[in-house]
Design brief:
Blueprint: E1 16-24, E2 27-38, E3 41-48, E4 51-60, E5 65-72, E6 75-85, E7 88-95, E8 98-106, H1 114-123
Antiparallel strand pairs: 1-2, 1-8, 2-3, 3-4, 4-5, 5-6, 6-7, 7-8
Length: 125
């Protein structure tokens, strides 16, 4: 009997360290996290300018769509909706205060994210 993989095997969604940013008032705010992807469910945790947080969410490989919720102290604070591709995960974060862009990528992957920023600025117009 074949043993089931411990994490997602899709190259766009490697489990492990990720880094990136979210935009706040048009300025990049760095964040780092460790994400785990398995069977359409993502989880993990990290740190940003507000402090430590955890992630919970879901993804669909056939569409590349991802929905994640960022929790601070166990309280759901920010919804992240995005897409995954060879450049990582990018899209918009949403709270009752507003919405702006974000982009995260696997830490071991050297990426230039200027195209992602340009794409987010177009989406947010």
């Amino acid at each position: 009997m074949a043993q089931k993989a411990e994490s997602e095997s899709h190259p766009y969604l490697p489990s492990g360290p990720w880094e990136g940013f979210y935009l706040k008032h048009g300025k990049e705010q760095k964040m780092g996290c460790v994400l785990s992807f398995k069977d359409g469910v993502l989880s993990g945790g990290g740190i940003d300018g507000y402090g430590a947080f955890t992630w919970r969410g879901e993804y669909l490989l056939d569409t590349g769509k991802i929905n994640m919720i960022k929790y601070y102290n166990g309280i759901p604070i920010v919804l992240y909706r995005g897409d995954c591709d060879e450049n990582g995960i990018w899209g918009n974060w949403i709270t009752h205060y507003g919405s702006e862009g974000f982009h995260i990528w696997p830490k071991d992957k050297s990426l230039v994210h200027s195209a992602a920023i340009e794409r987010m600025m177009t989406i947010n117009r």
